[in-house]
Design a protein that fits this description.
With about 375 residues, the chain is an alpha/beta fold. Strand 5, helix 7 and strand 6 form a beta-alpha-beta unit. The relative contact order is 0.14. It has two domains: about 180 residues, Glycogen Phosphorylase B (Rossmann fold); about 180 residues, 3-Layer(aba) Sandwich (Rossmann fold). The two termini are about 20 Å apart. The strands form two sheets. Strands 3-2-1-4-5-6-7 form a seven-stranded parallel sheet, with helices on both faces. The protein has a six-stranded parallel sheet with strand order 10-9-8-11-12-13, with helices on both faces. Helices cover about 50% and strands about 15% of the residues. Pfam families: LpxB. It is an enzyme of class 2 (transferase). It catalyses: a lipid X + a UDP-2-N,3-O-bis[(3R)-3-hydroxyacyl]-alpha-D-glucosamine = a lipid A disaccharide + UDP + H(+). Keywords: Glycosyltransferase, Lipid A biosynthesis, Lipid biosynthesis, Lipid metabolism, Transferase. Condensation of UDP-2,3-diacylglucosamine and 2,3-diacylglucosamine-1-phosphate to form lipid A disaccharide, a precursor of lipid A, a phosphorylated glycolipid that anchors the lipopolysaccharide to the outer membrane of the cell.
């Protein structure tokens, strides 16, 4: 630890989406505890900036999802990559840490590799879902792969690769003593439409259609929406095309709010694993463009899209994708839970088991230790 305490230099950290910024902020905090003299620059969002990142690029400016959606942003994406390439060459950081977002970060990995800069990948890309051939890319360009999902170990081993499994950082992000006592409010439905425009715009109107049906069928329901960082409340209200009242909450204390809901309807993504850990039954919804979805069906290699279902190896959270992610279908599935207490209890029992499968607290600290120990053997050039 003494060597790490005295370690100096700059580390480049690259997050490509808001969930990556969330994990990046906690990893930076762990790195700062173990090596307080290091400095950080790169691409991040509000949580990483709060931890002292010199944000040369903002993660908020790279918020696209899907194959065809990316096409409209290609000029901006390549401009950002060009900036990163030139900054890496000029600054020569001691290391590069990449967080998820493989379509963007794999290019950054190649830039760093060409400069002889070690590359650490925190929150390994979901190659097990699609493009498994990219494992060869990782074997060549990535110095250390750090995984947060238990089933990834076997996947990488089949390619002859060793992975550092550190447990899941979401376990650390929940203040369990402050939420475990919270009892769900009957009839309170939480809505999480995502953080990207391409998620929110197709889903929020369908949430509103579902709310209209549910409010007419089950009197006394409350509808609450969690506003993701960087999302304008005015836009959420504009997309809420119904007279059913909606309460919008900021992201602060979202875990306590989610715990207090009888059920949630959420965009597919990290939030579904958060809701699973917290113990709240969740309907998973997602819509892509028709072309993106058609391509995705051909290349995706796993039976589920929601991480809780992949971990449990069955559909604990119903996955309502594409044409199923519309108001009437969402309302139909929600009513099954709202009118069947036994079904709801069964889901909560499954989620209690899942919580035990994601490792002990301390994942960011363990990841920081892996990175710093490796760097300690590599004296700055």
């Amino acid at each position: 630890m003494a060597d790490e305490q005295s370690m100096t230099g700059t580390i480049w950290i690259n997050a490509g989406e808001m969930s990556g910024d969330m994990h990046g902020g906690r990893l930076m905090a762990a790195l700062r505890r173990q090596a307080p003299s290091l400095e950080y620059c790169g691409m991040g969002g509000p949580e990483m900036r709060e931890q002292g990142l010199e944000a040369l690029l903002r993660v908020e400016d790279l918020s696209v999802m899907g194959f065809t959606e990316v096409l409209g942003h290609i000029p901006r994406i390549f401009q950002m990559l060009k900036r990163i390439k030139s900054e890496l060459a000029a600054r020569r950081p001691r290391a590069v840490i990449l967080i998820d977002a493989p379509e963007f970060n794999f290019r950054v990995a190649k830039y760093a590799y060409a400069l002889g800069i070690p590359v650490f990948y925190y929150i390994s890309p979901k190659l097990w879902a699609w493009r498994t051939g990219r494992a060869r890319f990782i074997a060549k360009y990535i110095t250390r792969m750090i995984s947060i999902l238990p089933f990834e170990i076997a996947f990488y081993r089949q390619f002859g690769m060793e992975v550092d499994y550190v447990g899941n950082p979401l376990v650390d992000m929940v203040d369990w003593p402050s939420i475990d006592h919270i009892t769900p409010v009957p009839g309170r439905i939480g809505l999480l439409p995502g953080s990207r425009r391409k998620e929110i715009e197709p889903l929020m109107p369908e949430y509103a259609r579902a709310a209209t049906i549910l409010a007419r069928t089950v009197p006394g329901l409350e509808f609450h929406c969690v506003q993701a960082p960087g999302v304008e409340q005015s836009r959420l209200r504009e997309l809420w095309q119904t007279d059913v009242p909606l309460t919008i909450h900021g992201p602060l204390n979202r875990y306590a709010f989610m715990r207090g809901c009888q059920m949630l309807i959420a965009a597919s993504g990290t939030v579904t694993l958060e809701s699973a850990l917290i113990g709240t039954p969740t309907l998973v919804a997602y819509k892509l463009s028709k072309l993106s979805y058609a391509i995705g069906r051909r290349v995706v290699k796993v039976p589920f899209v929601a991480l809780p279902n992949l971990i449990m190896e069955r559909e604990v959270f119903p996955e309502l994708l594409q044409e199923k992610a519309d108001g009437p279908v969402l309302a139909e599935y929600a009513l099954r839970w709202l009118t069947d207490a036994d079904a709801m209890h069964a889901v909560r029992d499954d989620l209690a088991r899942l919580r035990t499968m994601l490792g002990a607290p301390g994942a960011p600290d363990r990841a920081a230790t892996v990175i710093l120990h490796d760097l300690q053997t590599r004296r700055p050039a």
